[in-house]
Amino acid sequence: MPHLAAVGPSDGLARAGEERLTGDDSARGAVRSERRKELLRQRREELGLSQEDLAARLRISVRAYGNWERGLVKEWTDRKLLALAEALEMSERQCFWLFRVMVDRDPPPTWRAAEENRLPEDPAQRDYLCDYAALMEAVPYPSFLVDHRWDVALTNSAFDKLFQSVRPHPTALPDDNFLRFVLFHPDAAAVLEDHEPAWCVPLLARFATALAGAPDDEGLRSIRQEVARDPFMEAAYRYGVPHWLSTHGADAAEQDGAVRTVRHPDPGWGLVRCRMVAESSRMLDAMGLTRMTLILSAPQGLPAGPVRPGQGYPQQQGARLRAVPSLGD
Fold first, then answer.
1. What gap in Å lies between CA 196 and CA 187, rounded to an integer?
2. 147 phi, psi to nearest 5 deg
3. What distance, in Å, lies between the first and last C-alpha atoms of the chain?
4. Which of 13, 29, 145, 226 has the most CB atoms in a 10 Å sphere around its CB?
């Protein structure tokens, strides 16, 4: 079933509870400590908040919050973690991951997201999105709604299935922010073939255009800061993107109509051709959302592979352009 990204947990978050760090206790403790620090810092910066801002939300001193972010806490109680989740505007899924990283257990069963920050306040728009979810679920291809920051507002089951093998990440899950997933998630290249030239560079080019048009947008600035902290992505942003655009032209960065390759969730298919289709509507435009659908089919010259009930994507053998006669006509 589809889910609104700000509300419902995904299969990926359910798998988060099943993962465990490997190695001896000391190594495990060191890795967990670093993950704790990174999780709090990245989420705070994603929201464009300083340590002073977050301390004010928590009603504690800046020094006390600094200790929290550095991991200098004697005990992470439910009260502290739930306060953090609320101050960091975390969804139910993000709160689940917070508890898993910090204390290796689930949040209290009474927890619900403190703020549905990605859902519109207008009841008519909310109802529209609920109905739009049903429309997207009827599509057999991976489909999702994103805003200008690439924050994901809605996905369908085919999208969740495509990225079902992706491990949890504090800020770069595919159904949280698709741009962050492409740029920073270590599993992105396992799903998105030709990851750097076909996915990273075109999206970085789109991102550069978005940032130039809204230089004060906190969400976009936060992504820019993350790019700057990654030497590889910073080099790609500063030098790779301009060279790529001069070689291929600005139209090459357009998402609508772009043809790429992904790894199909059914192992019997392997790598498949993917055409990206961008769509909008009057209501989606009013909410600042665009629908992206990934039309998956077998690569040219290769067999499509078996299609079993409930698996794979339908072949397009029966469809044809009406203006073009078939071979049998």
1. 13
2. -100, -170
3. 41
4. 145
